Each structure stands twice: as structure tokens, then as C-alpha cells.
Amino acid sequence: MASLLSVGGLSTGIDTKTLVEQLINADRAPARLSEARRATAQARLASVQAMNTKLLAVKDAVDAVKLPDSFRGRSVTSSQETALTATSGSSALAGSTTVSVKHLAAAHQVASDPQTSATDSMGSAGAIYIQAAGATTATTITPTDYSLNGVATAINEANAGVTASVINDGVGFRLLLTSTATGSAKGIAMAQGDGALATLLPDLASLTEVTPARNALLMLGDPVTGLPVESASNTVDQVIPGVTLTLKAPGDNIAVTVSKDPAIARNAAQQMVDAFNGALSYLTANNRFDLNTKQSGPLFNDYEIPRQLDRIERALTGTVAGQPTGFTSLKDLGITLGSDGKLALNATTFDAKFAENSEEVADLFLAVGSAASEPLESLTRSIDGSMALKESQLKESIEAYTERITAYDARLEKRKALYQAQFAEMEKLTAQFQSQGNALTGFVNGLNKSSN
User: Fold this and answer.
1) Domain ranges, ordered by start, for the chain
2) Which letter does DSSP use for residue 336 in this model?
3) Do 212 and 107 meet the contact criterion of CB atoms below 8 Å apart?
4) Across the strands, what pairs with 168?
5) Class assignment of domain 107-211?
6) Which DSSP string corresponds to 270-281?
7) pTM as predicted
């Protein structure tokens, strides 16, 4: 019996395999239409997702310009950076303060008596007891190597509030202990050994004090008669509110000047401008109809996105009621709308207006940002926003098209099998007719020969 999967048309002379494929291809026209519509939906989904990303960038930028900290940027300078440097936060008040550094905070240092060798063992038993850097109890340290170098290693590994090093002062090798913290209250309170280490560290009083524990001393105002301020650390943040001083060396009459810095505010405004322009450019590129190719963009005929983007543009470029004279729109701050619908920021104008009145600049951005937030929220809400609903609907359509295509192809497979069976039966019948015809021809030929 002929295979249904390999029908060659041997009896009829018809290429039945090709004919079946042509029939199935013609029958598959509805599935191809669904595939084309699915491809269109997939392209639209990708564009909706990309557009949503652009809109979320606008929302984030608008949210940023509504924050007060975006307009509280401060810069700080020191007139003697070799003596101290300074950094400032948004809470720092503009103005200048005179500071003198009388001396730096120091970490306590003590040294042992000189030893003849840094590597020779001092014995085989004994412990060291260290209390430093404000610790309330002593740390017990038992070395495995009783040389001077071994003792220093054991102390460093114990994290006991001191660092240990071996120095050679020309007289001999000494164990130098340094507190890990500066300040008069963070000195070394105990450094004592027993057993083989008792001679090296008999007690704290027997050691040589190299550097006393000391607080930093600053003078506010006059370097002699001003207000003294002590600090356990050389990083000082309690002298000028919102300003952190890093002390480096003694110095008098150092001017620490805090100024309003427009950079943070300008950068926030520029990010908003760039985000809006990016969203507008993407929409423009994807919702047009090309007259030459007769092709429409994936966002063509979407009226919601342009409508809401237009509302955002009007919020960013319109006049805000109730604002102080001279600061009624972003145009007053150097943010203008071009003929192409894109925003542009003039940094010079912006900085000048910020220096003039940074509080009113912040108020204006809060008002403008609040007005733009409503259409942005309407578009970008994660569950019921316009973009989320579009995305959900498109995903449902794509899934429906896929199911439709799969079901139709399954039916076509059955139809193909039916076609193959029908053509196979036709070939079989044709072969039978041919066989009967051949037999009849042979019979007639035989009769003719007999009559002759």
C-alpha cells in the first residue's frame, strides 16, 4: 500500500505532494493574517514598553525637581587648604566663618626600652595585656613568636585598640605602640607584659611616651581671644552647622566660606529637560505615517500618549498662578520651548536666577512639577495607568493570536492528512484501472493473433 506521507503521482502523473502543499498553503491564509496581526501587536508592544520607560524617566526627573534638597546645594571653600579642607551638606547656611587650627588631635604613642635584636626570642612563655582607644577592659595577647617582631605581629592581629611596629632609633630596637583612635580620652591605659615579656613591657609608666593623647584645638574668630573648640578627631563637624572640617596642620585666620551652589539644581533641571525631550523624540519617531513607504509607526493612531504629553509640556512651560513676580514660569529661569517642541536650558540664566533667590526657584519647580505629575501619573501608574493597560491589552492580543494560529495549524495538519489519503486512494484506483486496461489490451491482442 502506498505511504500517505509520500505520494508521488506514479500512476496519474500528477505531482500530488506539491499539489497538497499548495492546497494547504492556500488554506493557511487566515493563519498568515493572524501572524501578521500578531507581529504588528508585538512591534506595538515593544514601542509601548519603550515609550513607558521614557515617560518613567520624565516622572523620576519631575519628582526630583520637587524635592527641596535639589535646591539646597552648597559649596564650601577654605582659604588655607594646607591647614584644613571642608565639605558641606544641604543644611549649611551661606556665610563665612574664621577658624584657627591651634593643634591637631593626636593618637597616644609609647615605646619600650631598646632591645638588641628584633628577631631573637625573649623567652617561651608570657602574655601581654593591652587596654586602649577607650576600651573598658584589657585584651590578653599570647604570642607564638617571642621575638620583638613576633610580639608586634601578635598585637596587630589581636585588634586590641593599638597598632604595633618595631623601630630602630640608632640605640636599639623598640616596640612602638600607637592607639588606633585620636583624642585625649582614647589613649593607651594599659600596656604590660608578664613572664618573658615583663622586661619588655613592665608597665605603662615605665614606657617612653612618644606622643601624648591629645584633642584637636580650634579657635572660632580671633586666634587668641576667640572661642576655643576641642575635638577628639581631626574630622570636625560641630563647629559650623552642615560643614565638616578636615584638619591637616596648624594655621590662623582661615576663612571657611559657604555659598549657594546652583550645580545640583541645574543638573536636576537639565535631567528633566533631557527626559522630556527624549520622550517627545521617541513619540515623534514612532507615531508618524510615512507617505513614501505608506507605512505607519507602531504608535500611529495612539491619541492618549500625545494628549498627555501635551499636558506635560503645558505644565512645564506654562505660567504658574500665585508665584512671586519674576518667577512665574520656567522661562524666567532660562528653560524655554523651541519650535520643535523640545525644551532647552540656559545655564547662565538659571545660575543667575538661582543666586538671586534659590527659595523662589525651588517653589516654582515644586509648583511646575506638581502640575506635570498628574498626567505623568495617569500614564505611568503600574496597574491602572494608560501605558500599563495598553501593555496588558497587547499581551492578551498576542496570546490570542498565538492560540488562534496554533489551533488553525493543528486543523491544517488533519486536513493535510485527509488530502494525502484522498490522493493516495486516487493513485490506487488509477493503478487498478491501468492494470485492467493493460489486461484487456493483452486479451484483444491475443484474439487478433488467433484469428490470423
Assistant:
1) 1-73+262-430, 74-104+216-260, 107-211
2) E
3) no
4) 173
5) mainly beta
6) HHHHHHHHHHHH
7) 0.67
